[in-house]
Design a protein that fits this description.
The chain is of the alpha+beta class. The chain is globular, with a radius of gyration of 18 Å. The protein is built from twelve helices and nine strands. The protein binds glutamine. Glutamine is lined by residues 77-78, 110-111, 129, 171, 178, 206, 271-272, 296.
């Protein structure tokens, strides 16, 4: 028997409703941006305007919505961890990846070093710095930075993605904590490549410049099981997408992942450049708001996504 109270599926929801909800979310996000602060531990990021906000939605039918600063370029930062994981699964396979990094939420800050030394020899998951650096070490001898950039361009439908030299320089000069992580991994005998080459490739990947629109394309490919709905081409194996989405859901928002899972419930990945990619049912959503909360997530993007998820019933466990 049909449940009359069951909410409308996202696939049949009216375009007017979707547009209204995204428009409201944009104003909610914009109004909350002032409560956050831009990242300053990488000096170049401190130059961002904290009031900036952009929201872009791309659906599997080719429709799109754009609000605010969706063409502003900013550095991808931790969102590159999704691309690094996708590349590792592609070139090393599931076992070849997870023999070297775990798949557990850490409950710690993204750049924490604590549990890496105390409890385990392997980093907790590929969505935190230690895990991403370890995953990069699986790729250092397999793929060049240019090849990884080409993969990022394909996933994001964005030929403009390139190294932001100023961010890379800043990252390189202020990256001692990441160097501590890579050398700790080396000291434990688990790092799979040269530490300096590994951390350099990680810095470069974090310094790729994207837009909210390019992140929406990435989100759409992931939400669509690895096939680019616009070209029909397969970019990621569907089994790998399941793994990527699971880790985005459980670990993608650092030590806020549990609360984001409850409140928003959409596989997502944030970066300290202010970006957020979301892989929702039938749509990819890309956001940019450089003012961050204490976890390192964009405050405007999180507020906007909470509204969108609630009003459009996009939580993966909504019934
Ligand atoms: N490049 C940043 C770092 O390694 C990425 C962290 C992030 O976006 N949370 O510290």
């Amino acid at each position: 028997m049909k449940n009359k109270n069951k909410k409308q599926s996202v696939y049949t929801r009216s375009a007017e409703l979707v547009e209204r909800v995204f428009s409201e979310a944009y104003y909610i996000g914009k109004a909350s941006a002032a409560k956050g602060v831009v990242a300053s531990y990488i000096p170049e990021l401190a130059k961002a305007d904290p009031t900036s906000f952009g929201l872009y939605m791309l659906d599997e039918g080719g429709g799109s919505l754009s609000f605010g600063e969706t063409e502003t370029r900013f550095s991808i930062q931790s969102i590159c961890k999704v691309i690094i994981l996708a590349a590792a699964l592609k070139y090393r396979g599931f076992r070849g990846t997870f023999d070297h990094v775990m798949m557990e939420p850490s409950g710690d800050a993204f750049n924490s070093i604590l549990k890496l030394d105390m409890r385990s020899n392997l980093p907790f998951n590929p969505m935190i710095n230690a895990g991403a650096i370890q995953t990069v070490s699986l790729l250092t001898d397999v793929l060049s930075f240019d090849e990884l950039t080409a993969f990022a361009r394909e996933l994001c439908h964005d030929e403009g993605i390139a190294l932001d030299e100023a961010v890379y320089k800043s990252e390189f000069e202020s990256g001692d904590r990441n160097r501590a992580i890579v050398y700790l991994l080396k000291s434990k005998g688990v790092l799979m490549a040269d530490p300096d080459k590994t951390v350099d490739l990680y810095f470069k990947m974090c310094s790729l410049s994207v837009t909210a629109r390019s992140l929406a394309s990435l989100g759409l490919v992931i939400s669509n099981g690895g096939v680019d709905p616009l070209s029909g081409g397969r970019l990621i194996e569907s089994a790998h997408v399941r793994t990527i989405k699971s880790l985005m859901f459980t670990c993608g928002m650092y030590d806020f992942s549990g609360e984001f899972g409850v409140r928003v419930g959409i596989p997502a990945k944030s970066g300290v450049g202010g970006g957020l990619v979301c892989a929702a049912h039938g749509m990819g959503i890309g956001l940019y708001g450089p003012a961050l909360d204490p976890f390192g997530n964009s405050i405007a993007a999180v507020q906007a996504m909470e509204h969108i998820s609630e009003k459009l019933s996009l939580h993966v466990f909504d019934y």
